[in-house]
Amino acid sequence: xxxxxxxxxxxxxxxxxxxxxxxxxxxxxxxxxxxxxxxxxxxxxxxxxxxxxxxxxxxxxxxxxxxxxxxxxxxxxxxxxxxxxxxxxxxxxxxxxxxxxxxxxxxxxxxxxxxxxxxxxxxxxxxxxxxxxxxxxxxxxxxxxxxxxxxxxxxxxxxxxxxxxxxxxxxxxxxxxxxxxxxxxxxxxxxxxxxxxxxxxxxxxxxxxxxxxxxxxxxxxxx
Length: 223
Fold this sequence. Notes:
- The chain is built from seven helices and ten strands.
- The chain has two domains: about 1-80 and about 155-223, Rossmann fold (3-Layer(aba) Sandwich); about 90-155, no CATH class.
- It is α/β, with parallel strands linked by helices and about 220 residues long.
- The longest helix is centred in the last third of the chain and has 16 residues, at about 170-185.
- A hairpin with a 2-residue loop joins strand 4 and strand 5 (about 65).
- It has helices spanning about 40-50, 75-80, 95-105, 110-125, 140-150, 170-185, 195-200, and strands at about 1-10, 15-25, 30-35, 55-60, 65, 80-85, 160, 190-195, 205-210, 215.
- Helix 3 crosses helix 4 (about 110-125), helix 3 packs parallel to helix 5 (about 140-150) and helix 5 runs parallel beside helix 6 (about 170-185).
């Protein structure tokens, strides 16, 4: 269980990105964070990944306030969080295989285990036959699928994605969302920030609507 309990986030200059946000994320849920640019979607994702810390309130994971976690423990925590970005953040001079393998290399896994996991992840996103292709030789949709494979290869408990379809056309966007859905169906908890309400409505999940740092509707029927 992940819980944001009255979380407020202030940035330098006094900008209030979130104001007393409370949200429960249950294991295995697929949650879409929706709202205008600047509504607070990306800030919630950064908090979940401990890229940012709450200014006030608590971020609880399995009952522990990870918002106050010592810095030395954050790398181990982040190994349980897969991250997908709009701009892929792939290494252009490395093939798809090497890009996906990177988290496992950092974690110190052996060569055989890395090869097994990387090929399984690429197979799950339909790119096993392109493992030696560099990102620039792949389409935009294929690059995003490499990014998804890299995010799930370490078998994280939580996958977060920030506008993962922002640079894709409608058909490719639906394809990417369906990839996310397949991973969710095998138990991966997912939180996806998107401005595309029409696309999100085509995928079964809970919709959490934000506006100027507040939750308008948490999708539970209680707000």
